[in-house]
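Quarterly update, task 2.4: zinc ion-bound model.
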Amino acid sequence: MEAFKSEKVPEEDLKKVKKIERKVRRELGVKEVRLLLAISDEFKETAIQTLFNEEEEPLIMFNYESDIVQRVLKDGTALEGILLHENMHILQEESEKYVELIEKIKKSANKHKNEFREKKKLQELLQTVVMVLKDLMVNDELLKKGEGKKLLKYYENSIRIKPKTRTEIDVDYWNDLFVAVISLVPAWIPFYRNNMRKEGANIRNLIHDKYSEVPIKVSQIGNQLMDELMEMHMPPEQEEADELFDELISLHDELSDTSK
Ligand SMILES: [Zn+2]
């Protein structure tokens, strides 16, 4: 993996992350993981990501140059929160839950295949929904294990980072915003689902502040999804997955109308 230049990362930061990661792995019972705290062009805009590869152990990558990683490194509880989250992904990836989830969402997406002129757009939406539901499942499970406070610290730190604003209004910008806002739904809905409404409301307010400069519709997307997601089974029933997918398509259409 020559592209990674982890030698630029201070030794103390590497040690700190590895130490907390070992603790988290022990607690959750996740076996082997490769961990990478590095500076790399390959990360682009992603801050933290877990990659799965059939031949090797899963890899958790931290983009050392990202603002989120820099903030999280200064707060041990937040760091533990995100490592719990990534390790729970690893644990769930091996379970039947994800397979079931992906099958159902694919079926839901298939029902819309004639409405989309660009197949790529439907594929993107499908990937976003899968990502959001995986995050919801992970956070739901962590809250049930009593790890809510750590997760909360992670989101409090990462959400404070303002999105890039663009003066030019183009369709891709709206699409990016849509994906960004949808991706943040798992940061607060699980708290509402698991009797931590106050904490959920706190995160929700942070998200609202983060997007205060963009039209109200964007920040309302999450609120509109709440009905769907509050009671949803994890993984969802087929009917629930269909409803969620329909709702997302209509929200996405509404938003692209705004940009015209
Ligand atoms: Zn995740």
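Highlight for this quarter: The pocket of zinc ion is lined by residues 85, 89, 135, 138 (CB under 6 Å).
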